[in-house]
Amino acid sequence: MTIDVWMQHPTARFLRSEMLASLRRWTGGSIPDGDVPIEATVASMDAAGVQCGLLSAWYGPGGQDLISNDEVAEWIRLYPKRFAGLASVDLDRPMDAVREFRRCIGAGFVGLRVVPWLWNAPPTDRRYYPLFVECVQAGVPFCTQVGHTGPLRPSETGRPIPYIDQVALDFPELVIVCGHVGYPWTEEMVAVARKHQNVYIDTSAYTVRRLPDELIRFMKTGTGQRKVLFGTNYPMIGHQHALSGLDGLGLDEAARHDFLHGNAERVFSLEANR
C-alpha cells in the first residue's frame, strides 16, 4: 500500500497560473496545460499502486482561486476510498480563513496546507497563528513547503531554521508536515524533525532516486523511520516516476512500510477517516 501525502488534481486555472511557467523547463513539457479529468489522476495512482492521495486546494494572494476546497470535496465524493482533502485558505483574510478552515474540517478534510512562498510569508507570520490554533483544536496537521522554490520567487520563506523550528517551539502540540525535503537546507530540516516530536518531512517534489543522502540516512534511523512520508507533488511528478528506484533506497521492510503508508496513516489519522 502507498499513500501520497502531497498532490493536486489540477484545474485549468492552476495549470495556467504564471507560477508554473518556470517549472515547465524542468519537466520537459510533461505538465499538462488544459483540463485534466479526475480519472487521469486516478489512473496515474493505479499505475504505481498508490491507493490513496491527499488532494490539496490552492488559494493565493489577490483572491487567486486556483483549486477550490469545494472542487477537492467533489473529487473526494466521487472517489471516497482514494482521496482525502487538505484545505487551503486566503491568508490575507484571517477571519475568513479561520471560518473556511472550520468549514472544511466539518466536511472531513484531514489537514491544512499553506505554501509560504506563494504569500511571501514564512510560517512565523502572525496571519498563520490563528490557523495553527485551529489545527491543534481539530487534531489535524499543518502542511507546508520547505526548501528553495521552484517557481521564480524568493526561497527565504522555506528555511526550516528559524521558521519551522520557531513554530514548533510556539506550538508544541501542532503537527507539522514539511514537504519538498528542505533542500538545500536538508540537514537543517532533519535536525528540526529530530528535535521536535511533532515535526515530519515528506518527499514531494523529489523522485526517490533524487532524495538527498542525509535524508536517506535519517530514514534508516529509529527516529527517522517514523518521521518521513511519501509524496509526489503530482502532476509535476507522476506517481510511477516518483517511485522508480524505491528498492535502491535500501530500506528494510519496516522502514519501507512506514515511509510508504504507515506514517501517513498515523499522522493524518487516515484509518479513522476512511
Question: Can you give a write-up of this model?
Answer:
- This protein has 274 residues and is of the alpha/beta class.
- It has helices at 12-15, 21-27, 38-48, 69-78, 94-106, 116-119, 129-138, 160-170, 186-195, 213-219, 222-225, 239-243, 253-267, 270-273; strands at 3-7, 52-56, 58-60, 64-67, 83-87, 111-113, 142-145, 176-179, 199-202, 228-229.
- The strands form 2 sheets. The protein has an 8-stranded parallel sheet with strand order 1-2-5-6-7-8-9-10. Strands 3-4 form a two-stranded antiparallel ribbon.
- Strand 7, helix 8 and strand 8 form a beta-alpha-beta unit.
- Helix 5 runs parallel beside helix 7 (129-138) and helix 8 (160-170) runs parallel beside helix 9.
- It is globular and about 45 Å long.
- It starts with a strand and ends with a helix.
- The model has no long low-confidence stretch (mean pLDDT 95).
